[in-house]
Amino acid sequence: MPIQSVVKMGNAQLATPSVPFAGSAAELRAIVQDMQDTMQEKGGIGIAAPQIGINQRIVLFGFDSSERYPNAKSIPFTVLINPVIHIIGDEMGDGWEGCLSVPGMRGLVPRYTHITYSGYDMDENPIHHTVHGFHARVVQHECDHLDGILYPERIKDMHYFGFEDELGDIVKQSLE
Ligand code: NI
Questions:
Q1: pLDDT at residue 172 tops 80
Q2: What is 70-136 written as a DSSP string?
């Protein structure tokens, strides 16, 4: 059963910090396949293992084009195990985010603009990338899940948090 149900905000599992992945290659493949299938089925651009009920430090992200983020530049598909983020500089920018665990809602979230992230891929090769803008935002959002943090906790002005169909134009005009 590759497509899993997505754990939603309010479930204690999403607020629980995840442990480093230390399982076998076969376990990893099975978890990543489930994450990928679930993300694709829901139309997401990223997913973290706790969102399918697995509190281990695995995220994946990437898309060519996305209905959820119609103006965003594509991000290469990336599986990232035991990620670590290093922030470059102190520049931050606001952008609208959504989350498969907070369905139907959007919020304006400040994130660091420039980061380096590292970790391992499926074959235990080290990954080390420097990214900016929306790519950096997505990585920060997914890695927050591993620390038990959901994007609504990062919103500075709660006027800019609500149901997508009610927020209407303010979101549509400024979505990545
Ligand atoms: Ni999310």
A1: no
A2: TTPPPEEEEEEEEEEEEE-SS-EEEEEE--TTSTTEEEEEEEESEEEEEEE-TTS-EEEEEEEHHHH
For the chain, the first-to-last Cα distance in angstroms comes to: 33
CATH number of the domain bearing residue 171:
3.90.45.10
Considering the candidates 67, 97, 142, 176, report the single residue annotated as catalytic: 142
Distance 169 CA to ligand 1 centre (A): 22
Q: Could you read off the pLDDT of 14-41 as tens digits, one per residue?
A: 999 999 999 999 999 999 999 999 999 9
Greater confidence (68 vs 137) lies with 137
Q: How many angstroms separate the alpha carbon of residue 22 from the centre of ligand 1? A: 23
pLDDT averaged over the chain? 94
pLDDT greater than 90 at residue 107: yes
Is position 4 within any domain?
no
**Is there a catalytic annotation at residue 142?**
yes
Dist. CA 88 → ligand 1 center (Å): 22
**How many domains in the chain?**
1
Which residues constitute the domain of residue 75?
12-175
- Please tell me the pTM assigned to this model: 0.95
